[in-house]
Amino acid sequence: MWLIAVSVPLLSAVIIIVVSGRCCDKVSMLWHRALAWALRLVRGRVCVRSTHAFVFSECTHGKVDSVLETFDLYAETHPSLCIGPETGEVLDEVVRRVRPSQVLELGMHCGYTSVRLLRLLPPAGRLITVELDPLTAELGEEIILVAGFKHSQFQVLTSSSAEAIPTLRSFLEPDQKTSEGFNLVLMDHDPQQYLPDLLALEREELLCPSGCSILLISRKTRAEDLREILDHVRLRADRCSIKTELRSMVEISYQKESGNVECDNKI
Hints:
This protein is an alpha/beta fold. The protein has helices at 2-20, 24-58, 64-77, 84-98, 112-118, 134-146, 161-164, 194-203, 227-235, and strands at 102-106, 126-131, 154-158, 184-187, 212-217, 249-254, 263-266. The radius of gyration is 19 Å and the shape is globular. The model is unreliable at 1-6, 14-19 and 34-44 (pLDDT under 50).
């Protein structure tokens, strides 16, 4: 109900502006974006509820592998927002190679990726995940707990990425090496926020200057949305370069200190 209460006034306002004939092109674009946002939110909430219900009831609580296998089982016969086992295995390879101690996840999608990340972190490792939708954040956090992880190992922030990023410094341990910043950042939220959030993370000095891998999830329906951030990366030859471009995940290796940086794209 709250979705209707929020979206209807917004869409009504856009319609009024369209009728007035002012700035038709820009308003038309705004209309399509608002409608797409409302539809994504509705579909996303339905998907999260059904995914959570299935995983919660069918998995073996306290068993990480069982939680992930149940997610994958659900995705075989139902629409799912999870990245899936193929992309998940690539993610695992990156985590094992980078061996991050502090990870930032933007976009939760019911906790599948959160669980996948947490199971590969060292004992002192920590995950901070940012999710805009309160329901998704709540259900995703429950799935993380079902998988057997404790609150001391992760933090869920219910906020937009733009609002959350300036506050993240306070979540980095001041007496640990992780105070240098995040070693790994996973972006799987709104692709239009990928570039602004990358710039914000750099501006706030939240990326580990000695090396940070930034993973961009590229779903088939929005692959073109990566063009802006990849064009930006190509211009940052002092800190970043792109080797290859494949379709499901792009890895950007950021390194401020040496000036010799690579971007590896993974399928």
